Amino acid sequence: MADINDFVWGPVMLAFLVGTGIFLTIRLKFLPWRNLPYAIKMIVSKRDNSAGDISPFQSLMTALSATVGTGNIVGVSTAMVLGGPGALVWMWISAAFGLSTKYGESVLAVKYRKTNSVGEMAGGPMYAMKYGFGNKAIGSALAGLFALFAVCASFGIGNMTQANSISSAFEASLGLSPVVVGVILVACCLAVLLRGIRSIGAVSSVIVPAMAAFYFVAAMIVIVVNASALPAGIAEIFRMAFAPDAVAGGVGGSIVASMLTSMRWGIARGVFSNEAGLGSAPIAAAAAKTDHASRQGYVNMTGTFFDTMIICALTGLVIASSGMLGTIDPATGKAVSGANLTILAFSSVFGEAAKYIVSIALALFAFSTILGWEYYGEKSLEYLVSNRAVIMGYRVLFSLVAFVGATQTLEFVWNFSDTMNGLMAIPNLICLLWLNKDIAHECFEYQELVVEKEKDGEDIDLTGLTPSM
């Protein structure tokens, strides 16, 4: 399974992911980049008279709850060890093009969403493939594969691996038994998930901003205290990002990497963190109250900005300024990586309290990921099996599986779920390229009808008027 996983997340897939982002950025005349400030402003807009289940903000928070996870703490430190500190630059570069990818897939999700049997919105790449492709056989086949991969991934990368991160964090910092953590986790999941997307959206809209603020404050304290080392750290990050030959840097200690190594690990961990191109976040976008597909596309693309360009950047700068990168673990003889490296970096300022700070952040990030991925898995299962009893059974089973994740060793699950996560991207990227004309039409129409006027202070509401809806 590890070999399959290495192939799925290998250079070809990473080139496909970033290449699609580059193509869409050019195809859309760089509007996702140019309209990023506008998109951030749109996050708190209210369209209560528009079709949808939750507000644009709650939709974004649901998507962020699934993407802002252990990758922001563990993934960044791992990338900086395996790819050198320069990997952080390539995470940012991949995220820049990921803005266009996330915008495009969210636009298609809203454009082709449907109302299910209980009056909720159902949408995502599978619906765009089924209803957007002229060749219905190909569209339906790709849609079925995407939905199947998403359901499988939801139990692994979206549940058990996150639950395991939570129990490991609390066992290391507080000495809590994984069984106790597992029971508490199941109870919390049932309390939120049994009530569906409105409950997930409401809880995510509280947890995600709170955990982001907590982590932001803690990280900024470390960066400010270690400010004297920051300029050298940043210079080393950019130097190693573009070094043609393998080099070692002061900030990296024993870490040696070339540009190609930095590029590989930076892009891989960046995509893994913000999920641009995987097709997961658009499922949450489809539930939003919005009067135009492009409006929610802009709102949801900010998730990539906040996830990788802000939160991942904070972790990277904490590590770079702490002087801990390249520290050798005497027990293994290898460079300290993952959560342990992040704890070491925070301990440069907070001392023993660092393990509690990182553990709390990890637990909040991971729990929010469980909530967001349950919704992704549920909507994907709903596409395959429309029976409501099956859907409710999935919610209960998903909650119970968290106990398994909290109490078991999961190396195989990590590899399997990582593979399923990567396989989701293949039909989704094909969909984005196939329907690029639809994305461009929505983008340019919205730019003309709304963006230019709203930038001038007008409040434009397209409810009931736009053909895209």
UniProtKB/TrEMBL annotation:
Q: Which GO terms describe its cellular component?
A: plasma membrane
Keyword line: Cell membrane, Membrane, Symport, Transmembrane, Transmembrane helix, Transport
NCBIfam families under this entry? agcS
| InterPro entries noted in UniProt | Na/Ala_symport (IPR001463)
- DNA-binding as UniProt keyword: no
**Keyword Cell membrane attached:** yes
Q: What Pfam families does UniProt report for this protein, alphabetically?
A: Na_Ala_symp
- What are the GO MF terms of this UniProt record? amino acid:sodium symporter activity
Q: How does it sit in the membrane?
A: Multi-pass membrane protein
Q: Which family does it belong to?
A: Belongs to the alanine or glycine:cation symporter (AGCS) (TC 2.A.25) family.
Tell me the organism: Anaerovibrio slackiae
What name is this protein filed under? Sodium:alanine symporter family protein
Cross-referenced Gene3D superfamilies, in alphabetical order? Amino acid/polyamine transporter I
TM ranges are 7-26, 73-93, 137-160, 172-194, 206-225, 237-260, 305-325, 357-376, 396-414
Task: Tell me the superkingdom of the source.
Answer: Bacteria
Where is the protein situated, by its record's location annotation? Answer: Cell membrane
